[in-house]
Amino acid sequence: MSTPNNLKNIEINGRQLHYVEQGEDIKQPVIIFVHGSLDDYRCWQFQLDYFSKEYHTISYSRRFAYPNKWIGNVAQDNTIEGNAKDLVELIRKLDVAPAHLVGASYGAFIALYCVSKHPELAKTMVLNEPPIFQFLARSSIKEDVELLQRYRTYVQSPTEDSFKRGDFSKAAQTFIDRIMDIENFFEQLPVQDKKSLIDNAKSLEGELESAHPSFFTIEDVKQITTTPTLLVKGGLSPKFFHRISDILSDTMLNTEQILIPDVSHDNVKFTNIFSSKIMEFFERHN
Predict the structure, then answer these.
(1) 40 and which of 2, 65, 195, 223 could share a cystine (Cβ 3.0–4.6 Å)?
(2) What pLDDT digit, counting tens, does each position of 137-177 carry?
(3) 8-133+210-285 architecture in CATH?
């Protein structure tokens, strides 16, 4: 994939983060798209094309994601807290607050954590299945603990085994197949999509553990009282993602929840239903 002409970079917390923007009319409301694990700024192009007709859209590559240079230790620095600090600084440096924040998976967790600390930076949030597994770990419900164990044994452990062997391509393949819960999902992808996932395979290593921060609790979520939030689930997504979204829905004020049928986790953001539902949500809160 060639480098787009509109690819820019900005210094954020001592790192150069790359980003693209479309619909740059300063009078337009701003949407910032936050990608999940194994992705980078490129994964949101479908949504940038759609929303840039009415909004100023920004998609950036998080620390350690393509094509950013690596600074520090990925296993120690690629955390929810570190990525959230980057998002805060990005919003402030670009002077786009309050912005609509749209996050997928790990990116949704980052957006949520960011808003829990700095609610003034967000106009709304759209969260696609944030992997807040500590909610399941702290639950007194037996089924929640079983769902967490399912994630650990089916997704996390085999992916970590590939990292221990130094096989980053296999780690990416294992993770995406298991997190989507679709057999041979990776092998069915176009060649360029496979390459994009492998480009970011090493960045996944630090994110596997950092999706379980002990410092983020239900009480933090309860503090988010003024930010309208749309929770988006995929009809075919693993049950542990559905349960986490349900916990958020039951806990947070000012939330709506939608389910997009016939797609799983990472593919939600490529659907026209996702786009149209978000557009309706933004129109109600502009």
Answers:
(1) 65
(2) 999 999 999 999 999 999 999 999 999 999 999 999 999 99
(3) 3-Layer(aba) Sandwich (3.40)
> Is residue 236 within 8 Å of residue 129, measured between CB atoms?
no
Whether the per-residue pLDDT at 3 is higher than 70: the answer is no
Q: Strand 15-22 and strand 8-12: pairing?
A: antiparallel
State the pLDDT at residue 2.
Answer: 47
User: Of 60, 43, 241, 36, which Cα lies nearest the Cα of 154?
Assistant: 241
pTM of this prediction?
A: 0.96
- pLDDT for res 286: 82
Residue linked to tokens 């109600």: 284
